Every structure is written in structure tokens, then in C-alpha cells.
Inverse folding.
């Protein structure tokens, strides 16, 4: 059964990966290149960071970025499916809704919680800390995100047995509390001195919405594949039975 | 399905997976995560540049 979950997860990852790969090719790649060039044009007076020579051509970057996007979705699909296999009995809801709860938890853990401190950076961003420090912060925030997800699902479970709507409110409490505390306490680590604020907001919204879309497609595809397999195995039993009885 | 617990699922996984298979799977997943999210080698960094920015990957 574990293998069935993993196979559906990878298939769902391929579906999400095709969508995200197209998004990378037609939206994210051109926009990232544009922002990169826009800053080169008036950033020559100080020779730091993004003025370094590129190790690869722009075409290579574009192709590898699309491939990385596809691989990223397949990777998330596999991890999502394994987590769904082990955690399904503990998740609220039946069938598809438990898959969407887990996808929400995944988005909160891998992306949303880390972004409260380390928001998505547009090309040319200036970072306060070195890569090693940010890496350590990121790993810590993923752990925090997992903890917040568990707390949210746990408080939903405790309250929802008495009142379902109150359970939903209870589930948002740990999430909102974390968001408020982290966004007020955390220092500004990423800044974009050479880009308009609206442009940076749009870029960050693009990153957030596209990652959320990957998780939504994964949850929808996994539960669709599961339903489809359940009905097709029910249909296969008929002919097999007939063959075994006639022979 | 009903009344199943997380512990049941772990037992079921133990029954079909050898420790070697589990370790191989984890290593493979960790490898993909490392390359996509953490690898800072200039060649890899520049080639995945647009993806890492657009996916909001922190370690960039």
C-alpha cells in the first residue's frame, strides 16, 4: 500500500510539475531575467553581488530552471504521498479533505513559515546574513512550521468534536499567532534597494501563489488518482471473476 | 480503514520495506532536496537561478 501511495504521489508530482514547468518557462523565467537586467542597467556604480560574471548562459539558466521546477514538484509529490500514507489516520476529514489538510500543512512548513523571516527574494536582493546563517534559520523555521501545523491540527481535533466551526477557529489560532509574532520580531533580512516596492510585492505574491498552487494540485491529483484506481479495480474484478468461473 | 492508527501504518510499512530500502529512499529524497534547495556551487547556483528566486527558496 505504501508503494501505491508513493506511485500516486509521483504521478501527482508529474502533473503539478508540468503545470509548474510551464509557469517557469512562460512567467517566472522572463520576469526573473527582466528584473535581473533592469538592475544591471543602473547598478554599475557599485561593483558587488549581482555584477559577477555568470558561470552559465541565460539559455542554460532558463532550461535548468524549468527542469528544476518540474523536479521540485515531483519531489514534493513524493514526500507528500509518503507523509499522507503515515499521517492519514491522524488527519481530520475523510478522503480528499485529509489530503488537502496535509497539503496545507506542507505549504505552511516548507514555504509559508520560513517566508515570515526570509521572504522570497527577487533577483538582485541584498541579504543581511551569509548563506550559511540563512540556511540554519531556514532549517529551524521548517521545524517551527511543522510544529505549528501539528498544533493547528491538534487544536482543531480537540475542539471540532464539540463544535466544527469553533474547531476551524481553534486551528487558525497557532497559525495567526506565529505569523504575528514572527513578522513583528524578525529583523528585515532581505531588501531590494534597486527595485520598486510594488514590483517586489508582485514578485513575492507570484512566488507564494505558485507554491500554494503546487500543493493544491498535488492534493487534488492524489485524491483524483485514488478515486480513479478505486473505481477501475472495482471494474476489473468483474471480468477476472468471469474468466475464472468460465475456465 | 476505519479505526486505523498511525502506528498501524508504520507497522505495515515495516512489513513491506527493508531498512536498506527505507535508507535508499531517504538518501534519494535528501539528495534531491540538497541539490534543489541547498547546493551553493556557482555552476548549480547560476543554472537554477530563476527557479530558486521564483520558488522563494531561501538559501540563495
Amino acid at each position: 500500500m505504501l508503494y501505491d501511495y508513493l506511485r500516486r504521489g509521483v504521478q501527482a508530482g508529474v502533473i503539478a510539475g508540468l503545470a509548474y514547468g510551464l509557469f517557469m518557462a512562460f512567467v517566472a523565467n522572463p520576469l526573473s531575467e527582466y528584473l535581473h537586467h533592469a538592475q544591471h542597467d543602473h547598478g554599475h556604480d557599485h561593483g558587488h553581488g549581482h555584477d559577477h560574471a555568470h558561470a552559465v548562459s541565460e539559455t542554460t539558466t532558463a532550461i535548468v530552471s524549468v527542469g528544476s521546477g518540474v523536479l521540485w514538484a515531483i519531489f514534493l509529490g513524493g514526500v507528500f504521498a509518503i507523509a499522507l500514507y503515515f499521517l492519514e489516520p491522524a488527519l481530520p476529514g475523510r478522503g480528499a479533505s485529509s489530503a488537502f489538510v496535509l497539503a496545507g500543512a506542507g505549504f505552511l512548513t516548507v514555504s509559508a513559515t520560513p517566508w515570515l523571516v526570509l521572504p522570497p527574494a527577487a533577483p538582485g536582493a541584498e541579504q543581511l546574513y551569509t548563506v550559511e546563517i540563512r540556511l540554519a534559520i531556514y532549517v529551524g523555521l521548517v521545524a517551527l512550521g511543522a510544529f505549528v501545523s501539528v498544533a493547528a491540527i491538534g487544536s482543531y481535533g480537540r475542539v471540532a468534536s464539540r463544535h466544527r466551526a469553533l474547531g476551524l477557529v481553534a486551528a487558525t489560532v497557532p497559525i495567526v499567532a506565529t505569523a504575528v509574532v514572527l513578522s513583528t520580531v524578525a529583523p528585515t533580512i532581505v531588501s531590494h534597494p534597486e527595485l520598486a516596492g510594488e514590483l517586489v510585492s508582485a514578485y513575492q505574491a507570484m512566488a507564494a501563489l505558485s507554491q500554494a498552487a503546487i500543493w493544491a494540485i498535488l492534493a487534488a491529483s492524489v485524491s483524483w488518482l485514488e478515486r480513479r484506481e478505486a473505481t477501475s479495480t472495482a471494474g476489473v474484478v468483474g471480468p477476472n471473476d468471469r474468466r475464472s468461473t468460465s475456465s | 480503514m476505519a479505526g486505523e492508527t498511525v502506528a498501524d501504518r508504520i507497522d505495515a510499512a515495516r512489513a513491506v520495506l527493508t531498512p536498506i530500502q527505507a535508507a535508499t529512499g531517504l538518501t534519494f529524497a535528501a539528495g534531491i532536496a540538497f541539490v534543489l534547495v541547498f547546493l551553493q556551487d556557482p555552476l548549480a547556483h547560476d543554472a537554477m537561478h530563476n527557479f530558486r528566486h521564483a520558488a522563494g527558496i531561501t538559501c540563495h
Residues 2-43+57-231 of chain A form one domain. Chain A touches chain B through 52 residues (CB under 8 Å). The longest helix of chain A spans residues 197-246. Strands of chain A lie at 126-127, 190-191.
